[in-house]
Amino acid sequence: MSITARQKLALYEAVFEEIPDVIVLKDAKGDFLLCNRTMADLYHTTPDAMVGKHDSDFGVPADLAASFRHNVLGIMARGEGEVVFEDSRDALTGEIRHFKSIKRPFKDAHGNNQILVIAHDITDVVRAQQQVAQSEQRLRDVMTATREGIWDWHLPTGRLVHNQQWFSILGFSEGDVDSHIDAFAGFLHPDDKPQVWGQLQRLLDGHNEFYSSEHRMICKDGGSIWVLDRGRIAERDAQGKPVRMVGAYTDISERKQHEVELERLLELAQAGTRAKSEFLATMSHELRTPLNGILGMAQLLLLPQLSPQELQDYARTILTSGQSLLGLLDNILDLSKVEAGKLQLAPTAFNPAQLLMQTVAVFKPLAQSKHLTLRVDTGTLEQSYCCGDATRLRQMLTNYVGNAIKFTSQGEVLVQVAQINDDSGQRWLEYSVQDSGIGIAADKQALLFKPFSQADSSTTREFGGTGLGLSIVAKLAEFMGGSRGLQSQLGKGSRFWFRVPMQPAPAPLHPEQVTPPIGSAAPADLLSGRVLVAEDNPINRMVIKALLIKLGLQVEFADNGHIAFERVRQATPFDVILMDVQMPIMDGQQATRSIRQWERDSGAKRTPIIALTASAFDDDRRRCVEAGMDDFLTKPITLARLSSALSRWLKGGR
Questions:
Q1: In terms of DSSP H, where are the helices of 416-463?
Q2: What gap in Å lies between CA 646 and CA 651, rounded to an integer?
Q3: Could you tell me if 264 and 240 lie in one domain?
Q4: Cβ partners under 8 Å of residue 438, min gap 6
Q5: 359 and 456 belong to one structural domain
Q6: Alpha-carbon distance 542 to 550, whole Å?
Q7: 3 state SS for 560-611
Q8: Any domain includes 539
């Protein structure tokens, strides 16, 4: 059935009114000749009301209306249609809407210029594009701001895209690197390539859900950094084959450095633990050896019918073993003092050559027993005097000489002292000990001056020792502002030396009193007086009683500080008090404070109080003085030291 002209017209009119696009017919001035309902709705009016009006009549801003008019005139002048993108603002709501307009000029039946405009509202499309653009910009901002290097790998083409941070981490600019997987491979550290490709392949083969690898990357400057590289498959094709991977890596170089440092510290801690374990094993041996002599000889002394010579030999062995044990404990305490920074030097005038001779004299019997030649060289210092801590210097030299004799089975040991002048004019006092002993391998020499260390554990098993002596020498030399060192060749011997600043001193009035020989002690003088001994240990009481009676003194005992305080208050005044520091009920320091307070309150005469303690630290001495004690004796107590201390406080010596 054919459509009549009227029907066609009705159809066109229906399309014209209902179509969602804007349809407008304007004259040469830009005024509306005709528009559909869609156009009228935009201006909140009716199609009839728009005829003969201009855009500005409906609230369109003047500048925007002028641009519409200018565009119409231009198209008419050119006589060609065009497609333009335009914006329109709602007069009521102010909303901006976007249009894609097709504008075409033509003439009516009378030859008047007109223009037909068909505009499609693309506001939703534009807004969607803007949102996409904003999202992309935000993503770019995040990728730029993040500290991680982000990558996107298109597997079929090998194209590998990175963010700016990826390049910055490696020191490159974006244009420096080709965007291909082969270029990435060139930045992998050669040693780490198998690991990286292996992890990637496991992901691509479906064995792993994610890719993760810690490896090194080569930087622009040729160095390398550690990165944590992670990724996953972002896209697959219709067959499920990976097409695209995305990931990021983080610079973990700082963390790796911390891990390396932690591993180093762990190794040091483990080495220290091993050294201490070896030290404890060695210490057990070194403690048990003199204890064996003490306990063994003590058992022999209990046997009946011993000859005077046997009694003397056994007693001498007990004394020697006890002195060895005391020397070991002194070494440990000295090391603790130096490491804690609590060692105090006692400078006095001394003769360096005399100190050497006296030290060597102690070792002559031992050297002779091993058939070693023990030589000395005092150079030009026989008449020179220096100011320094002679006791500590002797201790250092003793350690050197003792080691030299211990580790030398044949040949000689040479002990020397000399003045050394350096280029700056500084004078140094240098003691050295050279031997023809076993020598020390070059790779072991650095260990010798560390606490608890010897060249190797077999040395300890064969020759004994704790490894403390040389460490003490090193600490003391440093403490005195000097240095120490050695030269050695395995199997041919060693030369150990230490050097301290040389401070000349005038010769004393009584040279024989300088650097008294080790072990020298004047015969104990007989004293007189009453002594109160506060001591809770029965064995210590027995020893002290025997020593005091030997010195000609009257002795009374108190088992603790409280009893000692009561004895002082109630008994005839004592001439001196020997006060143990650690006792039950009331310790020695508290007892001393109580006695001093009582003396002040009662007006009694002040009684000298001498501390007896097993502790040899300066802090303990200070606390005793603060409590009111007058003198200080460390256990074990010898007859000579006890006599010397009592002589200072008793006036009845004879």
A1: 457-463
A2: 9
A3: no
A4: 407, 408, 409, 490, 491, 493
A5: yes
A6: 12
A7: CHHHHHHHHHHCCCCCEEEEECCCCCCCHHHHHHHHHHHHHHHCCCCCCEEE
A8: yes
Asked if residue 534 and residue 645 are part of one domain, the reply reads yes
Q: What would you measure as the largest C-alpha separation in the chain, in angstroms?
A: 162
> Which DSSP state fits 84?
E
Do residue 326 and residue 464 come from a single domain?
no
Bridge partners, 116 (sequence order): 25, 104
| Domain span holding position 162 | 146-251
Element (H, E) at 612: strand 609-613
In angstroms, the CA 214 to CA 196 distance is 8
Q: What is the pLDDT of residues 182-235, one digit of tens each?
A: 888 888 999 999 999 999 999 999 999 999 999 999 998 989 999 999 999 999
Instruction: Report the distance separating Cα 244 and Cα 102, nearest Å.
Output: 41
Q: Per DSSP, what are the bridge partners of residue 531?
A: 555, 576
Classify 503 as helix, strand or coil. Answer: coil
The dihedral sign for the CA sequence 560, 564, 566, 571: positive
Whether residue 233 contacts residue 242, with contact meaning beta carbons closer than 8 Å, is answered with: yes
Question: Is 640:607 a contact under the CB 8 Å cutoff?
Answer: no
Residue ending a domain, choose from 338, 360, 384? 338
Copy the structure tokens of residue 48. 């009839």
Distances in Å between the alpha carbon of 174 and those of 164, 179, 226, 352? 7, 9, 21, 74
User: Which residues in the chain come in under a pLDDT of 50?
Assistant: 1, 455, 457-465, 511-524, 652-654
Whether the upstream peptide bond of residue 636 has omega within 30° of 0, thus cis, is yes
- Per-residue pLDDT of 362-376, as tens digits, reads 888 889 989 999 999
Q: Evaluate whether 196 touches 211 at the Cβ level (below 8 Å).
A: no
Both tokens of residue 177?
């690197």
Place of tokens 């005391």: 326
Beta 224-236 vs 386-388: how paired, if at all? unpaired
- Confirm whether 133 is domain-assigned: no
Residue 425's region, left for phi above 0, alpha for psi from -120 to 50, else beta, is left
Domain end (from 302, 322, 338): 338
Q: Which tokens go with 9?
A: 């017209």
Query: What's residue 416's pLDDT?
Result: 96
Q: Are residues 19 and 106 in the same domain?
A: yes
The predicted structure's pLDDT at residue 25: 92
Rounded to two decimals, the pTM is 0.47
Query: Does residue 542 share a domain with residue 455?
Result: no
Give the containing element (helix H, strand E) for 396: helix 390-406
What DSSP designation does 218 have?
Answer: E
User: For residue 94, what are its two tokens?
Assistant: 């102010």
Q: Are residues 329 and 385 in the same domain?
A: no
Domains of the chain: total: 5
- Mapping DSSP onto H, E and C, the string for 46-96 reads CHHHHCCCCHHHHCCCHHHHHHHHHHHHHHHHHCCCEEEEEEEECCCCCCE
52: left (phi over 0), alpha (psi -120 to 50) or beta: left
CATH number, domain of 451, equals 3.30.565.10
In Å, how far are 167, 245, 319 from 325, measured between CA atoms? 68, 73, 10
Token pair of 331, please?
């070494």
Tokens of 541: 């009481």
